[in-house]
């Protein structure tokens, strides 16, 4: 399970960095989104991946602290998802405004001759 999550984080990070280095703004925005997904998976993975464990302790099972899932990474990832969605929407609005003003969607504002 940990190997699959580590590979997913690596692939998302690699694809995100590659898209960040592209000359068009939409590809840059998609790269930032992929990087935020990779960070979310990383934060979620720090909470010790567990299946079927409750996120909060029961009153009678307080002595066995290893029998629950850590709720802090889950809360952090949920907050990061909401913030990431809002930032992506803001970036897309800025992209549309910049494209309307400059007539191109290149990061530097110039079309390439190739």
UniProtKB/TrEMBL annotation:
<feature type="transmembrane region" description="Helical">
    <location>
        <begin position="34"/>
        <end position="52"/>
    </location>
</feature>
<feature type="transmembrane region" description="Helical">
    <location>
        <begin position="72"/>
        <end position="98"/>
    </location>
</feature>
<keyword id="KW-0472">Membrane</keyword>
<dbReference type="InterPro" id="IPR050601">
    <property type="entry name" value="CPA3_antiporter_subunitC"/>
</dbReference>
<feature type="transmembrane region" description="Helical">
    <location>
        <begin position="6"/>
        <end position="22"/>
    </location>
</feature>
<comment type="similarity">
    <text>Belongs to the CPA3 antiporters (TC 2.A.63) subunit C family.</text>
</comment>
<dbReference type="GO" id="GO:0005886">
    <property type="term" value="C:plasma membrane"/>
</dbReference>
<keyword id="KW-1003">Cell membrane</keyword>
<dbReference type="Pfam" id="PF00420">
    <property type="entry name" value="Oxidored_q2"/>
</dbReference>
<keyword id="KW-0812">Transmembrane</keyword>
<keyword id="KW-1133">Transmembrane helix</keyword>
<dbReference type="InterPro" id="IPR039428">
    <property type="entry name" value="NUOK/Mnh_C1-like"/>
</dbReference>
<protein>
    <submittedName>
        <fullName>Monovalent cation/H+ antiporter subunit C</fullName>
    </submittedName>
</protein>
């Amino acid at each position: 399970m940990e190997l699959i999550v580590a590979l997913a984080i690596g692939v998302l990070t690699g694809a995100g960095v590659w898209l960040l280095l592209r000359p068009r703004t939409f590809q840059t925005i998609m790269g930032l989104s992929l990087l935020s997904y990779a960070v979310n998976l990383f934060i979620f993975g720090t909470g010790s991946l567990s299946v079927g464990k409750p996120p909060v302790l029961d009153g009678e099972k307080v002595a066995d602290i290893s029998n629950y899932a850590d709720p802090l990474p889950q809360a952090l990832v949920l907050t990061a998802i909401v913030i990431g969605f809002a930032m992506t929407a803001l970036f897309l609005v800025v992209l549309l405004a910049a494209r309307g003003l400059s007539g191109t969607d290149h990061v530097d504002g110039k079309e390439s001759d190739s």
